[in-house]
Amino acid sequence: MAVDSGEAGTRASAEGSELTVPATSASPLARVPAQALDVAAIRRDFPILSRQVNGKPLVYLDNAATGQRPLAVIEAVRRSMAEENANIHRGVHYLSEVATLEYDAVREDAREFLNAPASHEVIFVRGTTEGINLVAQSYGRSTLRPGDEILLTTMEHHSNIVPWQIVAGQTGAVVRAIPITDAGEVDLDAYRKLLSPRTRIVGVVHISNALGTINPVAEMTRLAHEVGAVVVVDGAQAAPHMAVDVQALGCDFYACSSHKMFGPTGVGMLWGRSTLLESMPPWQGGGDMIHTVSFSGTTFAPLPAKFEAGTPAIAEVIGLGAAIRYLRGVGFDAIGAWEHELLVRATEAVREVPGIRLVGTAREKAGVLAFTLAGVHPHDLGTILDADGVAIRAGHHCAQPVMERFGVHATARASFAFYNTLEEIDVLVRGLHRAREVFA
């Protein structure tokens, strides 16, 4: 397929016959009419997918942990390091000017990707975790008072729990959990009852990494705003798999990670409303985030520099830009339809394995399939599947409150991306049957 990072907008990747998506879910991903992807061509863009593991073809089903990188991203990072390496925003020489132009252009790519109103509202961070910590320590620590409440859904990743617990300890605020149902959906009635004039911040994951649930962020935001609360969204799992529109969601902050989006590790994006970002104190001090410095005092640079102290991850940001352009070239309509097809087929196939319990059966789901197999610990299951070249995740997925809610210590998790195939689902299911035989 070879979607070029510079021409992604003009080189479509949806080819083939019309795809009819099974109407077995209310997921918005199921409602998208799309052409079937040429998955074989897409896979050729990802070198790692052609390798073998333990003598078997790699079946990579751990995409919720990190995505693989297409050649367009690998080449963008290589070119930055090999041909354009220089610090940015400082030098007047050629390499610095080239690197600065490349780096700054990605901010506009990010703005378009999130449909943010302005590029200066996009802050480059190390990832979703740092983005949420920035909001907690800058906005939260400067505004929260004793007795204020922070509402978080029970399905949050630890990255959207621990930072708020820390800031609550610093300010005297209280963290409260929004319950979830047996299907793994937010209990909206309980959420409405928890909202009050004391609610200052609501934290919600757009798509759960442990359950695959797609949360009604726009509705939750509307309700939060009615009581004057600010909404912080963990978009780590959503950004690689569906179009994100922060204006349509109505939220106040949105964080996501490059490596989930098939880009480099160590970089991500935080979007925030200008009015909020401008009122927030800097989180870190150092070079490039200042206007003037003297021992009598310091004044700070305008957005976004105020929140980007020190030398950034230049090559990684440039790689993120290539990943954004690649995803836009493939198209989220096609990505969503194909990944939904994979989820439906995998759910049906895995349910046929005796002893399987699915964890997370929300009506609106993305491509995450979490389950347990009676008599087999998830870690043992992961080891057996690895022998067949199948990479899944086993554990609590940095979502221990979810495990407690469903009465398990851990689950096995297969998570899909647009480069996965129906044949790989067959390999997964054969491995599950073999695990039953081993532990019979």
Structure description:
It contains 14 helices and 19 strands. The chain has 440 residues and is an alpha/beta fold. The protein has 2 domains: 166 residues, Aspartate Aminotransferase, domain 1 (Alpha-Beta Complex); 254 residues, 3-Layer(aba) Sandwich (Aspartate Aminotransferase, domain 2). The strands form 6 sheets. Strands 6-12-11-10-9-7-8 form a 7-stranded mixed β-sheet, with helices on both faces. The chain is globular and about 75 Å long. The relative contact order is 0.18. The N terminus is likely disordered.
Tag the structure with descriptive keywords.
440 residues, alpha/beta, Aspartate Aminotransferase, domain 1, Aspartate Aminotransferase, domain 2, 2 domains, 7-stranded mixed beta sheet, 4-stranded antiparallel beta sheet, 37% helix, globular, disordered N terminus
Strand content: 15-25%
Identify the CATH homologous superfamily of the largest domain: Type I PLP-dependent aspartate aminotransferase-like (Major domain)
Order of strands, main sheet, comes to: 6-12-11-10-9-7-8
CATH topology of the largest domain: Aspartate Aminotransferase, domain 2
Quickly give the CATH architecture of the largest domain.
3-Layer(aba) Sandwich
| Overall strand count | 19
Query: Radius of gyration from the CA trace?
Result: 22 Å
Assign the structural class, choosing from mainly alpha, mainly beta, alpha/beta, alpha+beta, or little secondary structure: alpha/beta
What is the typical, i.e. mean, pLDDT? 92
Oligomer: single chain
Largest sheet: 7 strands, mixed
CATH first level of the largest domain: which class?
A: Alpha Beta
Number of domains: 2
Distance between the termini: 44 Å
